[in-house]
Specification:
One of its GO terms (biological process) is homophilic cell adhesion via plasma membrane adhesion molecules. It contains no helices and nine strands. It has 144 residues and is mainly β.
Amino acid sequence: MESNMHRDEREAPTFIASQKKIFLEENVAVGDEVGRVYAIDEDSGDNGIIRYSLNGSLDFSIDPESGIIRTTTSLDRERTAQYVLQVTAADQGNPPLSSSTEIMVVVKDVNDNAPEFPKEEYNLTLSEETPRGSQIIVLKAEDK
């Protein structure tokens, strides 16, 4: 009795060990590695070769072979506090099979703005009789 088993069914890549949430300080350097995704595919040949792609932000890129995610621009929490990145892993079969995962990037604030006063100049007139130690003005500054 002879038995030939052929695997005609193809499998889409499956994400494993992927971060679902990444926390970054807004002063992270451009080009720094900030995360990584990893997928496996049980198929052989081109059907088992995985390439990664990223959608959702031009502020990040992904290495198509390693799955390493990097910043491509300076991040500013005051401009964008969080990103949702859609990462796709696709095999090289014909047609390609793929799967996707979402990664949330949360940008943490860094004290990178000096306090600002509403006016650049304040003029006061004091009487000579003003007692020493008197409160003569209250100023408020804003810090973003």
